[in-house]
Design goal:
It is a single chain. By secondary structure, the chain is of the alpha/beta class. It is about 35% helix and about 20% strand. It has 16 helices and 18 strands. An 8-stranded mixed beta sheet has the order 8-9-11-10-14-18-15-16, with helices on both faces. Strand 10, helix 10 and strand 11 form a beta-alpha-beta unit. Helix 4 (about 120-135) runs parallel beside helix 6 (about 170-195) and helix 11 (about 355-370) runs parallel beside helix 15. The longest helix has 25 residues, at about 170-195. Bound molecules: ligand BES and zinc ion (2 copies). One zinc ion binds near residues 277, 295, 356 and 357.
Length: about 500
Amino acid sequence: MVFNLLNKEIDSLTCQALVVFSKASAQKDKNPKVTHSELNKKLAEVIAEKSITGKLSETVTFREMGYKGFRHVVVVGLGKENSISHEDVRQASAAAYQALKALNVKEAALHFDGIATGKKDAADFARSTVEGLLLASYVFDELKSSKKEDKKDAKASQEMTVHVVSKLANDKAVKAAFTEGTILGTTVNFSRRLGDLPGNLMTPTLLANAAVDAAKGIAGLKVTVWDKARIKKERMGGLLGVSMGSDQEPRFIIMEYKGAAAAKKPVAFVGKGLTFDCGGISIKPSAGMEEMKFDMCGGANVIGTLLAIAKLKLKINAVGLIASTENLAGPSATKPGDVHTARNGKTFEVNNTDAEGRLILADALSYATELEPQVIIDAATLTGAMVMALGNTHTGYFTRNSQLKNKVEKAAGESGEWVWNMPLTDHHVKDMKGTYADLSNISSGKGAGSATAAAFLEQFVGEGIPWAHFDIAGTGWAVGNRLNYCTPKGASGVMVRTFVELAKQYV
Ligand code: BES
Ligand code: ZN
Ligand code: ZN
């Protein structure tokens, strides 16, 4: 998808399709309005007979309408006037994209001044318009042979161009927001692709290579990758222990972004990069096991976060640490009862080899602690219990730091991603005590599986360092039933946008 922000009179353009918007009235029994005044008059009858209601994401397509230089006109609902949020705009733009795709058009003009009513919300809405279009345009079809053929046919693969037309197009803030939306949409889609690639094509080595390749040419961003020998030397007993059941080597990926003075403490992001989780010796049931290729989405989304932060040139220092391995059941695999030692010296019994995410994160969090960061934020598809608790709407997060909680809430408010604060107490910590080693990797109590997992992670975070853990088990993929800018089955790239908003608070 190609975009451009155009400062032109929209009616003077000529292209295949025009997208305008509609808003429902705040007053009961009052007709909705099409936000393009001439089309509002032209479509008066359609509005009167309630074929256009202004309902959020409603799309009404007028094929071959022949309005001025446009063949087709699409009217997209924004919801009730006066209460339109940036998330509504994101969803309406996604709906617009889907309608354009259904029309099979290659070029369209979007009446942005129908979304933003003035300078106040223009920047915010410009960003969400671009995000909605870009996120909705994501497809993962590179493994279909028919699509490969299509790509050879230049005409068939010609990308869609959308002209976002606004009289505010030359406004500095609108321009910057437009660029930001493009960066965010692109990096989220980048992370989604990593998630969607199957385990055989997304091994720890390939995940590390993808991070290295993506960072090439981005100013201030450096990527270092540790192989198995180095991981061993660095005493990462959790990551090494989990990797022992697989022929694939583990990787520890370090992304460093320098956007501020060297003395400024970094913001640390940590991700679970489990490229396939069969559960190990405590093997998972086969039904649905294929979904465990998504167990690296936390890692993929941290990679996306660092790419976005660097592309946005945020004036902070940031690190991204991704522990990556497979969890398989080969002859050398960790067995239930085995004890490993994490990088910070703490020992743990592996009483269930399927609770492996916390073991690899233990080393990554220990390493993050050594960097003396301002804050540590981690993302992981950590527990099935999270899916039970919150389903696939909200990402559950854990933190004992109230200031950080406020920051997270603010960031999520800006990004539009739903988060929910979960409890983490000393009771949960107690449940994770080991019998033979310091810790057990499963709880001795019943229930609260996400909180006890978080309590385990907490043992590897240095005292005094603000830390928040995001369990994306329910939101990392298959959230397209809730969000029209996500594919029904694939990875969502969740938390990239929220993490970038969080990072901005450390500028
Ligand atoms: N990767 C899974 C968690 C998961 C399950 C994510 C379903 C998304 C959907 C994780 O490694 C795991 O298997 N956790 C176990 C922990 C248990 C053994 C304490 C779980 O949640 O069942
Ligand atoms: Zn597991
Ligand atoms: Zn897992």
